[in-house]
Design brief:
alpha/beta, binds 1,6-di-O-phosphono-beta-D-glucopyranose, binds magnesium ion, DNA polymerase, domain 1, 6-stranded parallel sheet, about 40% helix, about 220 residues, 2 domains, Rossmann fold, 6 strands
């Protein structure tokens, strides 16, 4: 068998293209204070790559607390999102992580199709605010998928939208759930972070600055 010919690249958003975790933290922290729930940056790590409602459940589990009704939970999530959107509305190109733009430009020059595979329902706004939207052929975000990573749905949908077989796609991910989802989809997984934290990835990079399409 010859070397696999990859034709598509699928990028996670938070932690790969931009660092929105700090804004998620500030917005969740404000809600936690109002509900008198202790919530630290360490706790925030558990929310990375997790959907909005699942994140709220984790936050509520940190308090010694009453059960809230479904409508109360909806209101908490809406309030958090209102604050989060206020933060991301102020984002600009200066928040793009190192190596991202050269990588996207290089992939475009080589005719590689590019998709987003994110759990965030706010992904289009973030790509638009940072000027990254124009690099993407297809977007798959929290509005399109029912099953969260490590389920492969988000990446399989990305390959399908690009019209490519899953095994010709490369996924860029900073979470273990995301790397594991990429492998379950039959794709090549580039882990952005330490090997010890991302055991499912095929290779590991500190940032996209170190990435070379030719070496995979
Ligand atoms: P939203 P990713 C994820 O983005 C974040 O890592 C996670 O912390 C967040 O809860 C989730 O999006 C949903 O975000 O509330 O904007 O829909 O890493 O999958 O790009
Ligand atoms: Mg991520």
């Amino acid at each position: 068998m010859g070397k696999q010919i990859y034709q598509g690249a699928i990028f996670d958003l938070d932690g790969v293209l931009v660092d929105t975790a700090k804004y998620h933290f500030l917005a969740w922290q404000a809600l936690a204070e109002e509900l008198e729930i202790p919530f630290s940056e360490h706790d925030n790590e558990r929310l990375k790559g997790v959907s909005r409602m699942a994140s709220l459940e984790i936050l509520l589990s940190l308090g010694n607390n009453p059960t809230y009704s479904a409508s109360e939970k909806e209101a908490f999530a809406a309030l958090k999102n209102e604050r989060y959107v206020a933060y991301i509305s102020e984002m600009d190109a200066s928040e793009i992580l190192t190596g991202v733009k050269p990588t996207l430009e290089n992939l475009r020059e080589q005719g590689i199709r590019i998709a987003l595979g994110s759990a965030s329902k706010n992904a289009p706004l973030i790509l638009e605010r940072t000027g990254l939207l124009r690099y993407f052929d297809e977007l798959v975000d929290g509005n399109d998928v029912a099953k969260a990573k490590p389920d492969p749905e988000v990446f399989l949908r990305g390959a399908e939208k690009m019209g490519l077989p899953p095994e010709t796609c490369v996924v860029f991910e900073d979470s273990e759930a995301g790397c594991s989802a990429a492998k379950a989809a039959g794709m090549y997984a580039v882990g952005i972070g330490k090997a010890a934290n991302l055991p499912s990835a095929d290779e590991h990079l500190a940032s996209l600055e170190a990435f070379s399409w030719k070496e995979i």
